[in-house]
Amino acid sequence: EAQVTQNPRYLITVTGKKLTVTCSQNMNHEYMSWYRQDPGLGLRQIYYSMNVEVTDKGDVPEGYKVSRKEKRNFPLILESPSPNQTSLYFCASSPGQGFPEAFFGQGTRLTVV
Amino acid sequence: ELKVEQNPLFLSMQEGKNYTIYCDYSTTSDRLYWYRQDPGKSLESLFVLLSNGAVKQEGRLMASLDTKARLSTLHITAAVHDLSATYFCAVRDDKIIFGKGTRLHILP
C-alpha cells in the first residue's frame, strides 16, 4: 500500500531537548516536504527536498533542520525545541516538484512545554 | 511574495444547497490544487488544475481555474452532510503555498 509514515504520532517534550520526527515513503517519490499546521494559519511549508541530498527552505524554516540521505526518508529535526513549535506536523511526498503533494502522512502532534 | 487567500473561512449551509468556495492567489502560477481534511485526519488530494480554464469534477464537487483572474473556485452542488470538512487550496510557484482553509459544515 502506498503511504507516507510519520513517527511518532504524538509527542510531548520539554524546551531544549532535541527531537526527531521521522518520515518515510514507499513510493520512490523524489519530492518530499514538511509542513506545520496551526489554527487560523493553514499549512505552512517548513522544508522541502527535490531529491536525495537536495533540500531547501520553505516559508517557516527557523528552528528546524532536515536531511535527505536516502530517497525514502526525510526526517525533521528540532535541535532545541521551543513552545512556539507546538503544532501539528505533516510530511508529504510527490513524484516531482511539478506534481501536487499527493500523499500526506498521518501527522505528528507535538507539544513543547 | 506569493499569497493565497480563501473565502469564506467558515461556511455553514443546509443540505441540498449549492455554494462556492473561492481561492485567490497572487502569482502567475498555473498549478493549483484542492485538498480536503477531515477533523483529526490528514489531507486528501481532491483536484489538480494545471492550465487556464481547467475544470475537474468529482461527485458533487467541481473545481475550476482561471489563471488570468488568478482565481480558482470549488463549487458544491446539492450539498450532503458527508461533505463537511475543511477544504484547502494550494498554489505552486517555486514553493507550494496553502490557503488558510475553508471549514465547511453542512447541516442535515
Short account of what is shown:
Helix content of chain A is 0%, strand content 50%. With 113 residues, chain A is mainly beta.
- The average pLDDT of chain A is 93
Based on CA atoms alone, the radius of gyration of chain A comes out at: 13 Å
Which stretches of chain A are low in confidence, meaning pLDDT under 50 for 5 or more residues running?
none
CA-to-CA gap between the ends of chain B? 41 Å
Q: What global shape of chain B is seen?
A: globular
Instruction: State the major sheet of chain A.
Output: 7 strands, mixed
Number of strands of chain B: 11
Q: Would you list the SSEs of chain B in sequence order as H and E?
A: EEEEEEEEEEE
C-alpha geometry of chain A = globular
Number of strands of chain A: 11
Mean pLDDT of chain B equals 92
Q: N-to-C SSE series of chain A? A: EEEEEEEEEEE
- Report on the biggest sheet of chain B: 6 strands, mixed
Q: How far is it from the N-terminal to the C-terminal residue of chain A, by CA? A: 36 Å
What would you call the structural class of chain A? Answer: mainly beta
Quaternary structure state of the chains depicted: heterodimer
Radius of gyration of chain B: 13 Å
Q: Note the beta-strand portion of chain B.
A: over 45%
Description:
The complex is a heterodimer of chains A (113) and B (108). Chain A has 113 residues and is mostly beta strands. Chain A has strands at residues 4-7, 10-13, 19-25, 31-38, 42-51, 54-57, 65-66, 76-78, 87-94, 103-104, 108-112. With 108 residues, chain B is mostly beta strands. In chain B, the strands form two sheets. In chain B, strands 2, 4, 5, 9, 10 and 11 form a six-stranded mixed β-sheet that branches. The chains are: A mainly beta (113), B mainly beta (108). The A-B interface holds A 33, 35, 40-45, 48, 58-59, 90, 92, 97-107 and B 31, 33, 41-45, 48, 88, 90, 92, 95-101.
